[in-house]
Amino acid sequence: MKHRVLRNAWYVAEAASVLTNxxxxxxxxxxxxxxxxxxxxxxxxxxxxxxxxxVPLSLGKRRGDFVECAYHGLTFxxxxxxxxxxxxxxIPKRARVHSYPVxxxxxxxxxxxxxxALADPRSIFQVDHWGDPEWGCTPIDSMxxxxxxxxxxxxxxxxxHVAWVHPTSFGNSACAETPLKMSVLSNGVAVSxxxxxxxxxxxxxxxxxxAGNADRQQHYEVRxxxxxxxxAVFTPAGSGGPNGLFSPDTFLMDSxxxxxxxxxxxxxxxxxxxxxxxxxxxxxxxxxxxxxxxAFEEDKVILEAVHKGMQHAGTAHIDLASDxxxxxxxLRLAAMIRAEEEVLSVG
Length: 347
Fold this sequence. Notes:
Layout: E1 10-15, E2 24-28, E3 31-37, E4 43-47, E5 61-63, E6 66-68, E7 75-76, E8 82-84, E9 102-105, E10 108-112, E11 136-137, E12 141-145, H1 149-156, H2 162-165, E13 181-185, E14 188-198, H3 202-205, E15 214-223, E16 227-236, E17 251-263, E18 266-275, H4 282-311, H5 324-346
Antiparallel strand pairs: 1-10, 2-3, 3-4, 5-6, 6-7, 7-8, 9-10, 11-18, 12-18, 13-14, 14-15, 15-16, 16-17, 17-18
């Protein structure tokens, strides 16, 4: 990948449900990767190119836990070692492909694109309430967005945009003027705000358990390199705020968002939502998923326009007060990337 990106980190490679008995090719950080399940159900990830003539291994065949190239039958195990070269007396030393550490968690396949010795699954993004019977979960969804991944992290650290981009779902007039508070975290950046005694936004109105106005919190937290949790809180007016005591009827939704750079121009965007209402109601999950998808499609239109506009800008862009969170995130991530590059250059 020509542009700078953090390699020693866990990225979402694919939804776990996509991998059955197939050979599945994906592009991550500019590298072609083959994903497949071994016979015991574990996931393997290999460089998706036979070392002979670089034919994608995803065009080949499964042979048990092995992968056979479609061109000349070179066969590789899950570690990337070549175990067979038809017609050859010996296997060339360079006949191997790179393998990547992978882990399966939260219905997602996670991949480590950097130094395998540093790949600790305990550092994978933590999802609160996963498996909690009192919380519902929407199905995992994804889309391809034709923009650099950092424009999406910018967007997720900018709650103010919902008043204009999502006026019929996440936003309403209350979201237009209330200032944001930024917090620098050890693993990212957060922005949040309370809006007191406001109308419930359209997306949430059908799910809250109380009538009338609400105290609403928007909490947007993006962690390095490109994962986020967005918490929406709606509690009856007068019960919220920084020092409020939430009502038993308080509505909570945590939206988990994972951005995987495909290359400098493209991002795979994965998401799902956890909620504290109707945990076992499949119809509610379907309604949530449909509404969120519609809202994220609205983001997609804007983000692709941002990417194109910034690429072809004839004049310098400006920043606003609402850009404080995104700017701080970018600066800290850039410092992490520089530090990683310095270590690699010394090595």
